[in-house]
Amino acid sequence: MSVFPENFLWGGAIAANQAEGGYLEGGKGLTTVDMIPYGDNRMPIKLGLREQVALDESEFYPSHGAIDFYHRYKEDVALLAEMGFKVFRTSIAWARIFPKGDELEPNQEGIAYYQDLFRECQKHGIEPLVTLCHFDVPMHLVNTYGSWRSREMIGFFERYARTCFEAFDGLVKYWLTFNEINILLASPFSGAGLLFKEGENKEQVKYQAAHHELVASALVTKIAHEINPANQVGCMLAGGNFYPYSCKPEDVKIALDKDRENLFFIDVQARGYYPSYAQRTFRDKGVELEIHDGDLEILKHTVDFISFSYYASRCASADMNKGNTSEANVVKSVRNPHLEASDWGWVIDPLGLRIAMNTLYDRYQKPLFLVENGLGAKDVVEANGEINDDYRIDYLRAHIKAMGEAIEDGVPLMGYTPWGCIDLVAASTGEMSKRYGFIYVDRDNKGNGTLNRSRKKSFFWYKKVIESNGEDLS
């Protein structure tokens, strides 16, 4: 018998801004991701260190065409159905529904597009799991209001979310509010559309923006339940514990601090109030939150489940800011000497997934949903057209085993949606060559290629995993 429950939701995940393309089609407006190029300027713009409020014709912007899911979704959903998907995680591009973000009426063409997409999923027996905001804020809201530094964003997000809950009622019942909400602290522009003014306290800006997002998330969770009590709403954490680099107490303390920094958002979304340690954090960082009457009451509307991504564990040292941290990700980590790493420097740690799952359930006592996990790797198309990605199968097999162990530990897990089930633009680097999918897309880092889809070896392996409900991992 499989350790996975009978109703376990096997599937995969993408995001609108990394897959759809059609960046100005169907009435869509510009978003933050549309301003982030491929190449040397990518990271400074993502981090909010370089202002980019207009497109530069000399740059290549991967999100503009992406993998053309916008036009090819029927073909792609059919391929996911062929694997036996029970669930498909995607996101709605906010700027397809409200191109500027502050309009009073939505763009009906955008609504119609997503209705068609979700109906296509349901036609194949696939439940959509939909993220409302996956790293894409309408640029008009950035330029006019300063994005989430402005309290007005709460009302704009409420209108957008309510529109989605009503327009897609009966088509979508699983919702996530903000993707990897904790990334706001590490990558402020790509995470929340934040740009900084010279000399201001960046921590003040980030945590005030975080408060606005947390209030907005709780408010729309309440609205989702009012519109349809069957709606289930989750938060979304960029997960993975920080290990102390050594047993030196200073290393243990910095690991605790880093874990708390990550879990701060989920502490609020899952428990309904600010954690006790937050007051010291705010004081040390010179942060004075502006909290309006009624905000703390709104925060009590907690999520139904905890969704999270897990790619790797991290390692923390008291000396970790001395040039010894990995540049492979926006969340800095000392390289763990006991673990192998991917081509992009992300450590491979299946046991870390089991540890993360136990940590989250011990802390929150809410069901978990692993909505991102996978190996970014360079795939080679053989002369006969085969793509033998055994390295990806090995990675996923080990992590599925770890999920099973965590379930046996007593952790309730709703489902599993490996990241980039179809190759897409990597959020971290903007590359296509950093591939995650079961389905290969013929496109290179500069946007060249036929966009033709082909099945990798992992496609057939994962189909067998789903058919056996996780029992056959051979």
From TrEMBL:
GO terms for cellular component: cytosol. Pfam families: Glyco_hydro_1 (PF00232). Belongs to the glycosyl hydrolase 1 family. Its EC number is 3.2.1.86. Signal peptide: none annotated. The keyword Aminoacyl-tRNA synthetase does not apply. InterPro entries: GH, GH_1_N_CS, Glyco_hydro_1, Glyco_hydro_1_AS. The active site is at 372 (nucleophile). The keyword DNA damage does not apply. This is Aryl-phospho-beta-D-glucosidase BglH. The lineage of its organism: Bacteria, Pseudomonadati, Pseudomonadota, Gammaproteobacteria, Vibrionales. Keywords: Glycosidase, Hydrolase. GO terms for molecular function: 6-phospho-beta-glucosidase activity. Gene3D superfamilies: Glycosidases (3.20.20.80). GO terms for biological process: carbohydrate catabolic process.
